[in-house]
Amino acid sequence: MAPPSGLRVIAESSHKTDRTDSFHLANLLRMNYLPCSYVPDKKYEQMRNICRYRVSLGQKTTRIKNEIHALLTRNDIRLKQSDIFGAHGLEEMKSLQLNRIDTLLLKSYLDELIYLMDKASYLQDVMAEQAKDISEVKLLMTIPGVDFYSAMTIIGEIGDITRFPNPKKLVSYAGLAPRLKESGNLSLQGRISKKGIKNIKMDIDLCSTFSNSM
Question: Which range of residues forms the domain containing residue 179?
């Protein structure tokens, strides 16, 4: 399996047919220049799938919360609770008297929000139970600030860490390596590339700590 980003020369060619594509791919393979994608085994694939699903639930929850904030703002409503999505805040929102359309919208938002929160809570329990039996996750959790969810996300996205020949390769894979431009005697380093796996939610210090422990 080859990543499309590594085959842009073929994809963007002005003369593109199945015959020419096959010829170019065969040449790359013959010269050992064909970029290959990492395919995780079932253990890491299942961990990755459940973590990505949990991330998607969080993204959907954030979207619904933003919709509710917008609805309250246009009705000039400010709830007294510091966390309006806590138990008391949800109860107060259910009792709000709005116009017919906004009442319908708010009820729909709240129903969807509660459903997503229940799903996320259940998934957290499943992940916590799984984390107990994964040695790599337990090792990562020895780092201050890393819980089972962060550890499972990192391990699930990275996969078998022994496939990286050194810590720098891991940092680059995670998208945390600085941009580098060299020409002659000029060498410029910029901000991190952020071209790695987006679901690896860790900062530069955490990545450095993890890399130094290898």
Answer: 164-212
